[in-house]
Predict the structure.
Amino acid sequence: MRNRLISGISKFALEVEKMVENAQEILIKISKENGKPTQDPQPFVENFMEFFIIPPVELDPYGIVNKFDKILEMGEERFEEMVNIIAPAASEKWKANIIMTLKATIGINSVAKMIRHNLELAKKTGNLQILLMLQMSLPLIMRIVKAQFEGTKAFSEGKPIGDGLGPLVASMLMKDCSKDELQQKDDVIYAEREISGRKVTIVRAKGPGARVGKIGKVITSLINEKDIDRLLTIDAAVKLEGEKSGTIAEGIGVVIGGTGVDKWMVEEQFIKKDLKTDAIIVKMSPEEAISEMTIDMAEAAQKTLPVVERSILRSKEESKVMIVGVGNSCGLPNTISDISQIKLKKDEKKEK
């Protein structure tokens, strides 16, 4: 029984390790094609696979969010330094795509190392429990890893992913805005429009490069600068098994994923400014969120627009509303008038 388990898990381990190799090849290829490096990027990429970020100590929780923010900022700086080495001549858009491809590759590599670690540990100790736990977990692990690998390919080709739903909705709301009307803070863009007698500020990460943006800092700054009365955040969210992908749900609060740093920054404004908050989510599976965006997800974004308008109408006339499209901006232009403008994954089963 032990030998059969080891044999089966070994196949999975080799499959994930092959994905890491393929992801590195994709990363090196786009770096050479778009960045014209003076040195071979392969040794730099292989060395950077071991990059890690140590979270701050939690024994004294006071000020821990600011520590997290500082550490994450330093992490982003290191990724930017790395991309300047392996793709120095790349455009701003492609540097963002290469950074996201690099992050996704490191993520897959981390999973591959953990599978290999547990497998080798079970071989050395003959521990059947470790093998059984690993075997039971592998179907779920492989679902996510395969989707992450698809996401890596999407980043390398500049295609949108499911998590780009929030920025897609924001882009459609900004469809009538000219380039001169779009303003930028850090790697976040925003524009002002009047909708149903309300002054609306629309915010999203800058596209079409792969960015999530320093949403927390920019939102906090704009809330104070524009004297915002109501905040609406839109994001993709993980559905439960059995729920239909593309389902739209409404609630209250701030829907921003990640480490929680950006969410904390925005929530701090609730008490200070007495903000009203709405949240809209579009449900999808974890695989759909991190892999190439489908036509169904893009259509769900279109169906979100009337829901956004209803939320705007909850505020009084002449009030100031902020709409934030949260998510990854890869492959999404800053303004979109029609979803045919973006590259979407085709549903081969439906076509057949």
